[in-house]
Specification:
By secondary structure, the chain is α/β, with parallel strands linked by helices. The protein folds into 2 domains: 15-218, Rossmann fold, CATH 3.40.50; 243-283, no CATH class. The protein has helices at residues 24-34, 66-70, 85-96, 117-123, 148-155, 157-160, 175-198, 208-214, 217-226, 260-269, 273-283; strands at residues 15-19, 38-43, 75-79, 100-103, 128-133, 203-207, 243-248, 251-256.
Length: 284
């Protein structure tokens, strides 16, 4: 966001202090910025966000990594050393003017600098504080760091992804990070509604493993219904056929046929009405 631009959108007028880095936290705050909030990103002097160095590729004509730019639009950036008393004093002045604070430090790390939730809530009771970590603020795994590939493995999606006889596969984009950011944004918006009703802020506790398991959706429910781990099916669907990739003479075709009327139209369009007859006979 350049100085001559003013944010627009449903969150215009909302101010967010962004103490996040890498992907999960920056994804969350970027969405808030996209919705019109003024996001002030705090970065470490000298190095900044780790992802500034996740390159190549760089943005054309710059030394800015494409990775960093992909999750930090619509933000203002301030370098600040919160490990110093001066930096902490500046951070407190910024917090005093903010509606939300989003952070993805290890559990308890910000309390060392006077920026933990309990410390800030006592001074700024309307502040909404979102913490994004690998395993949440409580429990035996809380002190552990969390990384996307680790969470994909622990959360179950790697056991679902890949060919039946192949290795478990992670998804091609860091979905554990991205969904944690998405759930964080949803939690913040709900907390904003709560503050409007009560005048009180609160802490949003986002654990990447929690949110990862939450979006397993139908596959997660299939496990709960059968007590069996769903198998890897490649591009096939666990409940619907045909819903997969098929080879053709000049490449591949994806069929996504979700119900009988669609299957009927497909059979008629591809002169495969005998398949429709076989399908009806199997059902009977």
């Amino acid at each position: 966001m350049t100085p001559d631009q003013s944010p627009t959108g449903p969150l215009k007028g909302l101010r967010v202090l962004d103490l996040t880095r890498v992907l999960a936290g920056p994804t969350c705050t970027q969405m808030l910025g996209d919705l019109g909030a003024e996001v002030i990103k705090i970065e470490k002097p000298g190095t900044g966000d780790d992802t500034r160095g996740f390159a190549p590729p760089f943005m054309p004509g710059t030394r800015e990594s494409a990775y960093f730019v992909g999750v930090n639009r619509n933000k203002k950036s301030v370098t600040l050393d919160i490990a110093t008393p001066e930096g902490q004093a500046i951070a407190h002045r910024l917090v005093a003017g903010c509606d939300m604070l989003v952070e993805n430090f290890k559990v308890g790390a910000l309390a060392k600098y006077g920026l933990g939730y309990e410390q800030l809530h006592a001074a700024y009771p309307r502040l909404i504080y979102c913490s994004i970590t690998g395993f949440g603020q409580t429990g035996p795994y809380a002190p552990r760091p969390g990384y996307d590939s680790l969470i994909q493995a622990m959360g179950g999606v790697m056991s679902l992804t890949g060919e039946p006889e192949g290795l478990p596969q992670k998804v091609g984009v860091p979905v554990a990070d991205l969904f944690a950011g998405l759930y964080g944004c949803i939690g913040l918006l709900a907390a904003l509604r709560h503050r409007d009703a009560t005048g009180q802020g609160q802490q949003i506790d986002i654990g990447m493993l929690d949110t990862h398991v939450a979006w397993l959706a139908n596959q997660g429910m299939n496990y709960l219904a059968t007590d069996e781990n769903p198998a890897r099916l490649g591009n096939q669907h666990p409940n619907i056929v045909p819903y997969q990739v098929f080879p053709t003479e000049d490449g591949y075709m994806v069929l996504s046929v979700g119900n009988d009327p669609t299957f009927k139209r497909f059979c008629e369009a591809f002169a495969l009405t005998h398949l429709q007859s076989a399908n009806m006979a199997t059902r009977q």
